[in-house]
Amino acid sequence: MTIRVLIADDQALVRTGLRMILDNTPDLVVVGEAGTGTEAVDLTASTRPDVVLMDIRMPGLDGVRATGRIIANHGPEGPRVLVLTTFDRDEYVYAALRAGASGFLLKDALATDLLAAVRVVAAGEAALAPTVTRRLLTRIAVELPAREDPRLGLLTAREREVLQQVARGLSNAEIAELLCLSAGTVKTHVGHILAKLDLRDRVQAVVFAHESGLTGAQER
């Protein structure tokens, strides 16, 4: 299956570079380019991409608000948004994840990492680089007024434990090794967590864990 990608970035050279990488890959095709958030929202409606590569900082409607509008307009079955960021400067990434983005990627990532992230997001999974996730969400979460969410009561003790490790940015395999479980069991737990908490994907689970105070003890 060919994955349809929309590129949203206010820098023409960046868009050109991304297009060259994506269009030279057999299973990917670029269906449009947007230089502003508003254009990204409009082109998403007209081109129906599977994945939107979304820059955070764009004139007018920024990437955070554009992401929110795309998710609101198209729902859970709509296109996935993969945020592009320079990390050290773009602290709006957390807001983009809350708005519904399915992951983020550093702009200096290797082409192979970009292609892998696009495929992962298109498949309905979350593209979260573990080390970057820890640095970014830990850094920003300490500024949030964490409060326990009553929905935590829906989880079993084991599910809470798994969610804590997901919030740390660990993969299913890493969680399985840490908790002495099989990878399949961890995957099942993650699925139950998402269903019980009514969360879109793994990214939203990470955000929920930080906002609900579940990771507070680890960060202090």
From TrEMBL:
Keywords in alphabetical order: DNA-binding, Phosphoprotein, Transcription, Transcription regulation
InterPro entries assigned to the protein according to its UniProt record, in alphabetical order: CheY-like_superfamily (IPR011006), NreC/VraR/RcsB-like_REC (IPR058245), Sig_transdc_resp-reg_C-effctor (IPR016032), Sig_transdc_resp-reg_receiver (IPR001789), Tscrpt_reg_LuxR_C (IPR000792), WalR-like (IPR039420)
Sites bearing 4-aspartylphosphate, chain numbering: D55
Span of domain HTH luxR-type: 148-213
SUPFAM superfamilies assigned: C-terminal effector domain of the bipartite response regulators, CheY-like
Pfam families per record: GerE, Response_reg
Signal peptide residues on this chain, from the entry's feature table: none
Residues covered by the Response regulatory domain: 4-122
Superkingdom, taxonomy of origin: Bacteria
Presence of the UniProt keyword Transcription regulation in the record: yes
Protein name listed in UniProt: Response regulator transcription factor
Native source species: Amycolatopsis minnesotensis
